[in-house]
Amino acid sequence: MERNARGLARMMAAALTLLLCVALAPPGRAAAGGSGETLRVGFPIQAGLTEADGKGNLSGYTYEYLQEIAQYTGWEYEFVQMDGSLNDVLSEMLEMLERGELDLLGAMNYSDALAEIYDYPGYSYGTSYSVLAVLDESEITESNYAIGRVLRVAVTERAAARNEQLSRFCESSQVSVEYILCKNDREQLEKLRSGEADAVLWSDLALEDDMRQIVRFSPNPFYFATTKGNNQLTARLSSAIAEISKADPYFEVELYEKYFGHKDDSLRLGGEERTYIRGVDTLRVAVMEGKAPIQDVDPATGEFVGVAREVFDYISAQTGLQFQYVTAHSSDELMQLMKEGTVDIAACVPYDYESAEYYGVALGRPYLEAQIVMVLGRGVDTANLAGKRLALSKGLIYHGGYIEDVIWYDSVRECIDAVDSGRADYAYGNGYTVQYYANNDQYRNISLVPQSGTTQELCIGVSKPVDMTLLTILNKAVLSLPNDELQAMVYRNAVPEEPVTLDAFIKSNPWVVAAAVAALALAIAGALALHYRSRMRLVRQAELENRRYTELCELLDEHLFEYDYRKDRLTLAAKSARLLGVPMVQEHFGFRIGQDEGGKGTVGRELFQLLQSGGEKGRDMQLSLPDGSRCWFRVTAKQLHDQGGRPLVTIGKLTNIQREKEERAMLVEQAQRDSLTCLYNSATIRSMAAEAMDGGDGRGALLIIDIDHFKSVNDQYGHFTGDRVLSGLSGVLGGVFRHEDLLGRLGGDEFAVFMTSVKERTVVEDKCRLILKQAQALETGEAGLRVSVSIGAALAGGGESFGQLYQRADRALYEAKKQGRNGFRVDE
């Protein structure tokens, strides 16, 4: 049975296109893992991942990542290639890895079954996605695939998990799909190329040359894998991947774009779109000044300049559309121009839905992404910003804390001026604009702090009511803009062209030159000191080699232990014993566990069970600390035997993963919540309600609540009051419904509640009346403002899907509004 399980796991690994880049160690050779060791790496030829040209030159995502790892480990590689079909090669390499003939195997997905056979490092080195792909000549694009059509998608019957991911994506995105079942990948491609299917469900790492993706979803990390028990190699691998991510957070992204960035650079316009271009007059485009290098107005000529101008020039050249540019001097003026219909397009707005609502536009596809940068005043500590004055540019949607201390300015330059002069303590802005003004104006009292992982996407905004044909044309043009051309646009606008002479530079920057001379002198002194230090390092090399493994354990926050089976003795390293508050040596460890049901005074019953289970094991478990708290550790152990096969000792390590567990739980929670109301967001409540209906007794009720005339609240009292109304209504819902009921914000002023296991209409009606009553009593802080809501509700029927229940509740909401609002309607 164990042999069958192992064979099944290997088949799973090959069938999932787990793209392997593996290193092997021949039998009898010492396990690789130290500096200077040579690892044998399996190299199946797979496009984008592991490639070789006719001259034997190797390349690919996995190949380059391994070369980067070698910079941190000193490893050398012997890359192993085999003849035969890809599936046969992958299966053979998996068996070689299990036997210890390979050191390392790349692009492996993680599963519990595979983890019984192979060891994985603590970090992945890349992410693949499920995608919908079409043929290159197809007119279906990222911008129109869900508009006015039922998309025919070819899927394989055996890919149940991926098919379920597609189903959830289509339901949450409201995409109409017809599934065409196929027996295998080859039949999928035949259906696509014959025209029987519009798209195929595929992997972004395996796109054919004549295919392009139109949407991607469901990220799936992939890992290197090692032979079971090669703990030293796994630890070195984990450390190297962590260091690479720390030194360059975008390394994986850049590799992905290099080998799998299948961007469609061709512009395809349909007949309706070409007719629109021939008949449309010159389009008026609103541009803002003071946001260089992205958009600005040249003070000498009054001409629109910047990256956005070059993007519009590109769109005009590619489509034939003509544009006239209208200057807006502030975000408020831009909002006014858009909402009055004075202009047709906003040249550049943030790609987020709150900005879309603020400016009154529909968002096009993003054409530029910039990292958010903090501008920090002198002496301000980033760890303590409470009560500090934050300068923000009007129109920027701010999601941080301390909102009461925000000082609003018309431009990013004014925000930087305020921080530099001490009128504000810190500010935020996109990196291109902040860096442009910070460099050109030579500020003295600020520092720039990039916000890792926080970016702002910028796009074209089309005024409402939206002309969908115009929006589609703009989106297609933006998506066809080559990355290298876009980067050239950024460089031309971000880097000043005026020549700088040495004499002029010295005169305008005397202190900088003096500092440079001093730095040069220090560099010379440092070079001499470095030479001396290098000589001393050779003397200490032997000592350092002996301490390497101990230091590595300290770096990785690992705690070592050893268990002697014959003496029933557990021995902990001094660091481990201090952490757990127990003696370094625990005699009669197993006996004490058996006598003490609670495991008091020991490391714990779960650890003892792992030691007694035999073999090489790894498990996550919680252990008690001296202060009474519980902490998560990852326990990895290897059992050593005598010549008769009897266990002698188990050696192992405990790795603290408490922060990893907490961060993962926090990220999941944040991703499911609406930032303003802290209720579930639209995608989450839809998914959880659907699961509740599928997994329960089929009973329940869905309520959709809409705030009456909410737009007039924002227009008359402002968005701050509007946000108070939204937050107040979320509080009302939290007080009215039970803990087990699901509460969410669908978007804008629309909320949803799914009541579980509800059978009686009267219960739903009572809840509706209570919501109406408490909504009218909301304290808004504005005299004369009274809040009312309209509610549509529906009770679930047997065998009904969530989508059908949602449609009935939505119709009931429409009827409630039609009857005069401030009321409810229940559809059984």
Structure description:
By secondary structure, this protein is α+β, with helices and mostly antiparallel strands. The strands form six sheets. Strands 1, 2, 5, 6, 7, 8, 9, 10, 11 and 12 form a ten-stranded mixed β-sheet that branches. Helix 10 packs across helix 15, helix 24 crosses helix 25 and helix 25 packs antiparallel against helix 26. The protein is globular.
Q: Could you give a quick summary of the protein structure above?
A:
It contains 27 helices and 34 strands.
Characteristics:
828 residues; alpha+beta; ten-stranded mixed β-sheet; nine-stranded mixed β-sheet; 34 strands; 42% helix; globular; disordered N terminus
Q: Let me know the average pLDDT.
A: 82
Structural class of the helix and strand makeup?
A: alpha+beta
Principal-axis shape: globular
Number of strands: 34
Question: How many H/I helical runs?
Answer: 27
Computed over alpha carbons, the radius of gyration is 31 Å
Spans of at least 5 consecutive residues whose pLDDT stays below 50 are 1-5, 11-34, 597-602
Tell me the major beta sheet.
10 strands, mixed
Distance between the termini: 53 Å
Strand content: 25-35%
User: Helix amount, in percent?
Assistant: 40-55%
Map the helices and strands:
Elements: H1 2-15, E1 22-24, E2 38-42, E3 51-52, E4 58-59, H2 61-73, E5 76-80, H3 86-99, E6 102-108, H4 112-115, E7 118-119, E8 126-135, E9 151-156, H5 160-173, E10 177-182, H6 185-194, E11 199-203, E12 211-227, H7 231-247, H8 251-260, H9 271-279, E13 283-288, E14 296-297, E15 304-305, H10 307-319, E16 323-328, H11 331-340, E17 345-350, H12 353-359, E18 361-363, E19 368-377, E20 390-393, E21 406-409, H13 412-421, E22 426-430, H14 431-441, E23 446-463, H15 468-480, H16 483-494, H17 502-508, H18 510-555, E24 558-564, E25 569-572, H19 574-580, E26 585-586, H20 589-595, H21 605-612, E27 617-624, E28 630-641, E29 647-656, H22 658-672, H23 682-695, E30 700-707, H24 710-717, H25 719-736, E31 742-747, E32 750-756, H26 761-776, E33 789-795, H27 802-818, E34 824-827
Parallel strand pairs: 2-5, 9-10, 9-11, 13-16, 13-17, 20-21, 20-22, 33-34
Antiparallel strand pairs: 1-2, 1-6, 3-4, 6-12, 7-12, 8-11, 8-12, 14-15, 17-23, 18-23, 19-22, 19-23, 24-25, 24-29, 25-26, 27-28, 28-29, 30-32, 30-33, 31-32
